[in-house]
Design brief:
about 230 residues; alpha/beta; Rossmann fold; 2 domains; 6-stranded parallel sheet; two-stranded parallel sheet; 13 helices
């Protein structure tokens, strides 16, 4: 993925590298980063999630959009590989049409533009099971994730957050930079084939899905460990 180039460049010029997983530490070593620069501290995004989760519970986003706890799917889609290709986007929409569940979908501006450009927006607006929403903030997003039956996304952050929350996640991509969310957590990489999306989604809806666990040091205390390293 393009952003990996930036990450590798930053790795090379950094004095201290704070890794969210042991596998990330091994990746750094394979890049030639010396051990004394690498520190396994956990995931700072989970610090944010745990800190703000009580505040997210106060969000009224479910009431505003008439959503019931555990009775909808939360969908986000924004990656160029998904939304800039008409065939890929059409396939994902066809999968949504086949699902027998309510889908809450906040539209990223890029996604809304592509849906309009490709002539798909009207189709979605006519689908009874899809509720299109304006973009939502972080607290509303957490509220939607926490109370969803499951999440479908191409976001890296949501893969991590759903694992921390224990919510099933189907990632609509062919690869992921968050392998621990698959190996340990609640995430499944399903790609963008409509048939596969429907099969995996129906499996969750029917109660057949892994429970998942919390990756090591995803405990909300990564910042404290980072500060300890800096002080030393």
């Amino acid at each position: 993925m393009p952003e990996e180039i930036n990450r590798i460049v930053v790795d090379a010029i950094s004095d201290l590298l704070f890794a969210p997983s042991k596998q990330a530490c091994e990746n750094l070593r394979s890049e030639g980063i010396e051990d004394h620069r690498i520190h396994f501290v956990g995931n700072v995004m989970i610090d944010s999630l745990m800190s703000l989760s009580p505040k997210a519970d106060e969000s009224r986003i479910l009431d505003i959009h008439g959503l019931s706890v555990g009775e909808y799917v939360f969908l986000t889609l924004h990656r160029a590989s998904n939304v800039d290709c008409p065939d890929t986007l059409a396939g994902i929409i066809s999968a949504l049409q086949a699902l027998r569940c309510s889908i809450a979908w906040p539209l990223h501006p890029r996604t809304r533009n592509r849906l309009s450009e490709f002539g798909f927006l009207h189709t979605l607006e006519m689908m009874g099971n899809v509720k299109l929403m304006d973009p939502v903030g972080y607290l509303d997003s957490l509220k939607l994730q926490k109370n969803a039956k499951f999440v479908m996304t191409d976001s890296g952050g949501l893969q991590e957050e759903t694992t921390a929350l224990g919510v099933p996640c189907l990632t609509l991509r062919e690869n992921t930079e968050r392998p621990e969310t698959i190996d340990i957590g609640t995430n499944t990489l399903v790609g963008v084939c409509p048939e596969r999306i429907v099969i995996e989604a129906e499996s969750v809806l029917n109660g057949h899905y892994k429970s998942g666990g919390l990756p090591e040091l995803w405990d909300g205390n990564a910042v404290e460990r980072i500060v300890a390293v800096l002080k030393n």
